[in-house]
Known about the structure:
With 615 residues, the chain is mainly beta. It has helices at 2-7, 95-98, 107-119, 125-132, 521-527, 581-588, and strands at residues 15-18, 21-24, 28-31, 34-42, 47-66, 70-72, 79-81, 144-164, 169-190, 197-198, 220-221, 226-247, 251-268, 282-283, 287-301, 306-317, 341-353, 358-380, 391-417, 420-433, 438-442, 449-454, 468-478, 482-492, 494-495, 532-533, 536-549, 552-561, 569-573, 598-601, 606-614.
Amino acid sequence: QEVFELKGVAYNSYWGYLHDQKRNSREKRILEPIFQLNHQYKLNSKTIIHNHFTYQYGTRASSRLDYGGGRLLEDSETIVGGGVNPDPTYYQKLPSYFLRDPSNPDFGRAYLAAKEFQENGQINWNEIYEANMNLTLGNNSVYALYDDQQDIKFWSLNSGFSTRLANRFSIQGMVSVSANSSESYAFMKDLLGGKGYLDVDSFTKNYLEAQSDLRNPNRIVFEQEKFGYNYELDARKVGMYLNSSYSSKRTDLFAGIDFVSVNYRRNGKYENGAYPGSLSLGKSKVTDFQSFGLKMGFLHKFNGRHIILMNGNYLENAPILNHVFPNVRVSNEMVNGLKVSVYKGLDLKYVWRHTHFRASLSGYYLMLTDESKISFYYTDGLSGLENATSSAYVQEVLTGIDRQNSGLEFSVEVPLLTNVKFKAVAAVGSSVYASDPDLYLSSNGFEGSLSLGESFLKGYHAAGGPQHAYSIGLEYSSPNYWWLSGSFNFFDRSFVSVAPITRTRNFFFDTDGFPIHDLDLNIAQKLLEQESLPTYFNLNLVGGKSWKINNCYLGLFASLNNLSNSLYKTGGFEQSRTANYPTLKEDKTREKPLFGPKYWFGYGTTFFTSFYIRI
């Protein structure tokens, strides 16, 4: 919020000037060509066999600035270095940092920080180059620009059939096999004026634990070289699917089942100092999951005007690869207690086709169980550690997440004139956590994992957009093949995502491991309330035109979104930096919190247009 108030909604902190030229520190490069072979064979008038083969390979790379460069002292076991975070929005560069002590605020430095941020507020590339050319670090770069790079290879083979057993019955089936392998690593792009980069974690005090690769200690990295982390991931998947359907004059029925088996493995190519030996180097054990799914549904036409539809499903989904290894870059360790997630859903819809309107009403219920999530952050206020550590960069692992989604949706379409329609839509839903998942932390800063037990999330709203939405609009369709539609849209019930760590027992304990003696439950309840974002609206305009010239078709499509240029928050999340009652209370009592929620803002007025030619 502080950054928004100082720089506005269009501010982007990731670029700056280098000799009067704009340079961006965050660039993404994707090169992933896809090759496909499709085959279809008509066995007879009722049966078709089809085969599909896909092969994809390529590279994904995302650049970022590193500020952890350093050097070794003469004893060769002491690492010094590390720079100041170059992000202009780093909390120690903002005015609130100098006002953090209510009893002794530094208004002068806060004013200077605000002025500097408003007038500049971009990455200072020239300053970065000057720091790297300072010989006190032995020509090693403090700052470097590197890519998080991933090289992938993927192939899949699907073979299926569809057959009609009788005039009303049909069956479809498919068998699929796929394999996905990738290599991920840090790739040095630019030393930014330095001669090399010491491949260690300069923020880790222990000399051995700081090594990125114990087999190549204190390695000096040059441009166009891999460093930091290097690992391979392999995923194998086999699936089978079968669906049958029945269709009559008034009723359609279907039922489908599937079975999927997947297995994952990590292969570390570096022996990380914090995870020596097989903890990081070499192949991990193979973990595998089997999942089953069932879908059923029907459509019944009472007559041409009244239709009812219902769908039900029970779907098991294996964890995605990114949720299997909590610290995948440097460790073969797997998530504890990982399970197949289950989605159980039911929806019912009624459609009324009247001569003067068309309307539909639907309701849905969805229960999602045993989901998992991994998050990375730096936090203060940890308890339960054997040493004096109360702050650490951690990997937070949540398992056993249950969510319940339910709601009603209504739509109506009314012809007003020959070519004009009125449309209205309302969606009223609720998405809440339905369980108290287990939470544990792992980190280079302490040994083993730190279990914090249950995170009491049950009853909190699951963030992810507005849960209530309403829209009214008009649409005009011209006989001359052009159309125009406008709508007024209103959104409500958006929530900031809560920080799970502050809903654990850690919140009620001091850093010495003892319960907080002056805890006020009323204040604690207020601190843990979930923030609801303000309602917002927008006006949208969409239109198109098509032409036919001989056998050639031309088409134009254009949209204007948020014509009113409304400013609104689309979402956000609580930071997990303040992990217990004293740290969170101290921060929230400040006029401008240092670690308040981070927000996403909607764009102002935007437009999109496309043009196509079809021969």
